[in-house]
Each structure stands twice: as C-alpha cells, then as structure tokens.
Amino acid sequence: MRDNSSATTRNRPVVLPRTPSGLWWGLLGVAAFSFTVPFTKIAVTGLSPLFIGSGRAVVASVLAAFALALTRQRLPRGVQWARLAVVAAGVVIGFPLLTSFALTTTPASHGAVVIALLPAATATAAVLRGRERPPLVFWLITGLGALAAIAFASMQSGGFGQLHSADLLLLGAVVAAAVGYAEGGLLARELGPWQTVSWALVLASPLMAVLTMLSLAQQPPSASPVQWVAFAYLGVVSMFLGFFAWYHGLAIGPMAQVSQIQLVQPVLSICWAGLLLGESLGWTTIIGGLAVILCAGAAVRVRLKPAPAPQTAPPAVPHAARSLQPAKD
Q: What is the pTM of this model?
C-alpha cells in the first residue's frame, strides 16, 4: 500500500498544544480560591471550624446533586469511584477542615505563607501521578517561585517563625489539596471538570453531613450576617464553582504548568486580607507580588514534554494476507 493510503496508519509523537486556554481557566479558579483564606478567617470568628469545614461541603454537595440530576449525568464506573474518593479526601474533606482549624490560631496572611507551597506540591503530584516530565529549568523556576511566594508572604505576616501546630495543619492541607488537584485534573478528562468535583462532593456528603450535625450539637452557630456571607462564599464558590474553572484548566493542562498559576494566589489572598481584615500591607506587597508573578509567568512558559509512549507490538498480519505475499528465497 502507498504511504498516503487511508488503510495505512502511522504512530506519531503526541505534541502538547501551546494553548493559553488552560492557563486562563486556571487563573480564574485561582482568583476564586484567593478569597478562601480571608473568608475562612472571617467565618471562624463566629462559627466553629468543624462547622465551617464540613458545612461548606454540605452546601456544595446539595448544589452538586441538583446539577448532576438536572443534567442527567451518567454514573462513574469501576475504578473511577476510587479515584473520586481520592479527590474527595483531598479537596472536600482534608483541605477545608485542616485550614479551618489552622486559621483559628493564625492570621490569614500567615496561612498564605504555608499555602504558597501548594503550586510546587501540585506540580510534584502531577508528575508522580500523570505522564508529564518537566525539564530541570521548570523545577528551578518552580522552586524559585515557591521561595519568592514564601518570602513575600513572610514579610507580610512578620516572618515564618517557628513551626507551630497551625503550620502542621496547613502543611497537611497543602499535601491533601495537591493530591486532590492532580487526581481531579486527570479524572476531569474522563468525567468533565464540574462533574468531577460534583461527584466527589456527593461521595463525601454523608460523612460531611454527620460532621456538620456533630458541630451543631457541640456549638450552635451564632454568627453575624457578614460571617454567614463569608461562609456562603466558601460553600458556593470556594467549594463548588471555583473548581469548575480550576479542574477545567488542569484537564487542558499540562497540569504541572497550570499549577504554577497558584503562585499568584498568596499575593491575592494577602491583598484581600489587608482590604477585608485590616491586616498590614506595605510597599513590599508591590515588589514581592511582582516577583512572584514573574516567577509564575516564567514557569508557565516552559515547554513540557509528555513521557514517551510505551512500545507496542506491530499488528499481526492475517493468515490470508500472508498467503498472498511472494515467497522469499
């Protein structure tokens, strides 16, 4: 057959398209998430951290159930349920609960110090879980960006200081979110971005509902209207709508590259903390923020290459076709 015959197929290397759409979707998700830390800090002044961490998931799961039912989404199958459990454990259960408890004893700006490690953690999880193989320059820029984000946030919160229990909780939240982001980004390519977070919320809803009832029995809520508005944002946007854009960006990918958009998140979070909570902001905000944003811009411009595809055996020639081939001497 000729090379251009329709019956002839060629194995060509997969080339990742250099499209900015994944980065823009990721930036939209980060913008939504940047309010999470300051709004959590507002909410914990009138609501228990257990109620905030679990109740926001219950609110989001109700919205998710309605969305899935109205659009008649098909049920996940087989191992997809186990992968959804990983997503739920990371971003529905782990990150909200751990950050809520941590922010009862630490300022919102200090919380951004530890959460600034999330882009590097997400990139690492994406490499371990996915098929992306970033070059050395990517890791150098990622490490520099993480250090710049931590230094920037540390200047705003008065220094990283010694490791406290709140820092351990925040570190646990970073690990949980990174694993949930990486697995969710892969699963979003199969189920869809909003479907992935919706099924994860529904899967975790029984546990989160029990925790919410337990928190109500232990400490009945007595929050102000502002604190309820902050809680509503956490449930509707941080826990639900923000993931529409974030998982869509990760699904388009490359995940390791899109994850570096999160370097901008501590800059935005500290700015919101200054505007909403009155936490100190100075001239270092502009300088540090620009440094972090430049690192993020450099990281997302690094071309990533997928891992080499596994070797496959050539297709077998049917017996009838072999009989038509001329015999060799």
A: 0.71
